[in-house]
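The material for today's practical consists of a large collection of protein records. Getting from the letters to the tokens is the skill we practise here. To make this concrete, we reproduce a full record directly below:
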Amino acid sequence: MVNLVKISEAASLGLHTMALLANRGEGRSTGQEIADLLGASVHHLAKVMQRLVRAGLVDSAVGPQGGFRLAKSAGRIKLLTVYEAIEGPMGEPQCLLAKQICEGNDCVLGELVQRINREIRDYLQDATLATLAKGNALVKALEKTGTE
């Protein structure tokens, strides 16, 4: 089945990585460890991590005890902040066609596009990283396999 809602690979990597780091607490994780757990390119992950560090969401250190960890508590980090650190500010919905023929206000799908975008933005604004990491079975499974 095709997903109607698309999220970029970079944003997905960022959200998954932040959930992993939230579950690790004060411990650091290397880029290679995270990339291996997520089945991602370490080079692509490095670009995502640069954005998260620049946004002040992740702290990085080099050396034998180096790696990444959250720069603040997971309960203080909104998912929208993580998303926008990677993708930039969420804008208003636009025409779904490659050549824009409407402003999204008079869409053939009615208010559906605006409503879905608003619901996604509201969810990301309301949910914290702690909420995401706490009940996420995938994150827990990855953590378990990554430590054994």
